[in-house]
Amino acid sequence: MAGLLAACGSDEKTSGSEGGMDLAxxxxxxxxxxxxxxxxxxxxxEGEMTGFDIDVAExxxxxxxxxxxxxxxxxxxxxxxxxxxxxDAAVASHTINDDRKKHVDFSTPYYxxxxxxxxxxxxxxxxIADLDGLEIAVSKxxxxxxxxxxxxxxxxxYDSDVTALEALANGRHDAVITDFITxxxxxxxGLKIEGKELLGRSEQAIAVxxxxxxxxEKINEALETLRENGTLKEISEKYFGEDxxxxxxx
Length: 250
Known about the structure:
The protein has helices spanning 52-64, 75-83, 98-101, 144-149, 161-169, 180-188, 213-228, 231-240, and strands at 16-18, 21-23, 28-33, 36-37, 41-43, 49-50, 67-72, 89-95, 104-106, 111-113, 115-119, 136-139, 155-158, 175-179, 194-198, 202-209. The chain is α/β, with parallel strands linked by helices and 250 residues long.
């Protein structure tokens, strides 16, 4: 969490106001994501990002009548970038939590997930209590570090969840805590890891600066439209083969 509010440089930019929305660049929906969180965001050889979060952001931009303007940024610093106005929003699989809500406002959730423990196939660890004092890897700026801190001081931070899972599969660390969908995708891609205890449910949402109420309202309206017309479901099924945008039954 140390990197959550890392300082961002104050780039010169041409800001504008459109329909009451304060924008980093006039006519554009400038959104940040890491490009290191497959299949939510991944960077290709040309430096362009694709993935579930990207498709959602582009669909929201279309509803807003704005040009999508993607920005690749280290996950741990994205919240501060939104807070400072460098980006209009973060569409980067941010879990809604009280710490982040001190700095930004969140849209309605655009998908639902939850953290899970991942270990190598030869491990006998099943639950969070089994990891007492062991080495756990998580991504910088994620909510998973806080969960790991409940059972160990031996925490290794990575720039991305995928990198942490790759290190685990290659014999490093005792476990990784990350989103269960990310782990599922990694297993599908051939990583020799196994998912164990699910550690709850989480709501992922778009983050917007606290003083940009009009933009937040319009993003919520856009998400509602995309839910109702089936676009969110379609994007989810494209990447996951199932609908992760529907609120789970209690």
